[in-house]
Amino acid sequence: MTSKEILAFTLKAISDRHGEDTAAYDMQGHSILADYYVVTSAGSNRQLHAIANAIIDEAHKVNYYDYRVEGTSESNWLLLDLGDVVVNVFTEDARDFYNVEKLWVNGKKLELKED
Questions:
Q1: pLDDT band at residue 113 under the 50/70/90 scheme
Q2: At what angle do helices 45-61 and 3-16 cross, to 10 degrees?
Q3: What is the fold of 3-109?
Q4: Burial class (CB in 10 A: 0-12, 13-18, 19+), 90
Q5: CA angle 75-66-20, nearest 5°?
Q6: What is the 3 state secondary structure string of the chain?
Q7: Cβ contact 1:35 at 8 Å
Q8: 15 with 115: CB under 8 angstroms?
Q9: What is the predicted pLDDT for the residue at 66?
Q10: Mean pLDDT throughout 53-73?
Q11: How do residues 89-105 score in pLDDT, each as one tens digit?
């Protein structure tokens, strides 16, 4: 499965669960860890976990099982490592606090379609 295909099902899952202020960065040629980094916000801890579970469900639908999830049920931040795509799902306060997007300034911010 290509990194673009992984990115596509990831963005679909985020949109389906109403992730907010979603951004994706093309880091090819800038990062050896992943081709794409995605960040989105959730209005609550419950929504944060719903978004992560939706991404996992989409991965299973396309028979993609090469992923890891970091964080706990009490976390305000979950990281999903999908190989060539890394997804950070934050509560709004945690996203503001950690400001991980500053790490990706060398990448190209992708223009995402709003559904």
A1: confident
A2: 140
A3: Beta Polymerase; domain 2 (3.30.460)
A4: buried
A5: 45
A6: CCHHHHHHHHHHHHHHCCCEEEEEEECCCCCCCCCEEEEEEECCHHHHHHHHHHHHHHHHHCCCCCCEEECCCCCCEEEEECCCEEEEEEEHHHHHHHCHHHHHCCCEECCCCCC
A7: no
A8: yes
A9: 92
A10: 94
A11: 999 999 999 999 999 98
Checking DSSP bridges between strand 36-42 and strand 85-91, what pairing results, if any? parallel
* Range 62-91 average pLDDT: 94
Q: Which long-range contacts (CB under 8 A, 24 or more apart) does 79-83 make?
A: 80/10, 80/52, 80/55, 80/56, 81/34, 82/6, 82/10, 82/55, 83/3, 83/6, 83/34
- For 26, 32, 33, 60, 65, the CA distances from 19, given in Å and listed in that order, are 19, 27, 24, 20, 22
Q: Where are the domains of the chain?
A: 3-109
